[in-house]
Design brief:
Two copies of one chain form a homodimer. Chain A is an all-alpha fold. Chain A is built from nine helices and no strands. The radius of gyration of chain A is 18 Å and the shape is elongated. The model of chain A has no long low-confidence stretch (mean pLDDT 94). The structure holds a DNA duplex.
Chain lengths: 189, 189
DNA sequence: TCGGTTGATGGGACCAAGTGCCATAACATG
DNA sequence: CATGTTATGGCACTTGGTCCCATCAACCGA
């Protein structure tokens, strides 16, 4: 029998999500998470920087968004580039098999301020990444800032809607529709 | 001689700011902060919920903004109500004598991710408070959301500019001008 | 097949954040 | 002067997080 079972960090994530749902985030210790995953506290902190990060691990999102913004067609406006990126990221990261996990994750985060704090920070990083990517496309600073802000907001709202969906709705389409709504809203201010 | 010196939490805040500047946030312990203020660790946690909160204490901002948004003139648009609130809050909270403190505080926060995380959370709370206040003025949900977002962004940018100012510039005017810039920017998206 | 190297894990000591409880000293009030 | 209230000090305790070292599985070359 192999002593090292495969996918240690995935096991840790699932164990953590289970326990957070059962007893709540605060009443769950890192040792308990590790034990349920068949590992130890030491190993937990080798895979995640801290207890919160176990729910924010696969953190390639900011980079992905930035890449896709830069790869958008030459003539595209700032918002079009953002829409392009949302669509691409939707296909890559928001696959149907991840929807249930996202739903459970959202509920746990919504129940705990400490986790919301981490999520807020990730949101800032996301906006910053998009802003910089737009600026590399020679979008003026303020325009980049506002477009990124609207993009992040659209992402957040779309994520909320998507994770509540029952059928296999396409995240990209949801996000693009949301972004258009936000755009018309901002024009009517 | 009185054993209880006045303004314990103010002393704690200043002691903390000093130490954070000297050795950095992480290398400063709560005990050191308390001792420099002539108090103890126990007392520190009686005044602040945690170590980070010592820099985010006077946290009436969200409430103030919400109040002023609701008190804005009847016929005002969402953005005008926000501008009204920014102006009022500027007079109340961003007084000239607080400018130097704000500058030092900003530098410390900018140097530490843990503090940026807390700031991000406060930012979310601010946006949420403004959104809800706008909705109580019968602003449609999406409009309220976008207007609050722009307001929060304007506040952030204006705060940055203001804390770097040397003269006694008026925060309210700065914020309103910033908000107008953001509005025209968003119209040209 | 064997022995050495590499990388992931286990384990324990350790520090600091944060909680809870209780004693006590200062303040206010009669 | 006696009494109750409030802020503080002090201590024990749990937990998150760091560091270091021993160990064990897997891989690799001879």
């Amino acid at each position: 029998m192999a002593r090292w079972q495969p996918y240690p960090s995935e096991r840790l994530v699932l164990a953590a999500l289970d326990l957070f749902e059962e007893r709540g985030y605060e009443k769950t210790t890192v040792m308990e998470i590790a034990e349920r995953a068949g590992l130890t506290k030491s190993t937990f902190f080798r895979h995640f920087a801290d207890k919160r990060e176990v729910l924010f691990g696969g953190d390639t999102m900011a980079g992905l968004l930035a890449d896709w913004i830069e790869m958008a067609p030459e003539g595209a406006t700032a918002l079009e580039a953002v829409a392009h990126a949302l669509d691409a990221v939707g296909r890559q990261a928001f696959t149907p098999e991840r929807r249930e996990f996202s739903f459970r994750r959202r509920a746990v985060i919504g129940a705990n301020p400490e986790l919301q704090e981490r999520e807020a920070l990730k949101g800032l990083a996301l906006t910053a990444a998009m802003t910089e990517a737009l600026e590399r496309r020679d979008t003026p600073a303020l325009t980049a800032c506002v477009a990124a802000q609207l993009g992040a907001l659209a992402l957040k709202i779309a994520y909320e809607r998507w994770s509540h969906t029952l059928g296999d709705s396409d995240f990209g389409e949801l996000a693009r529709r949301t972004l258009r709504e936000l755009q018309t809203t901002s024009e009517e201010l």
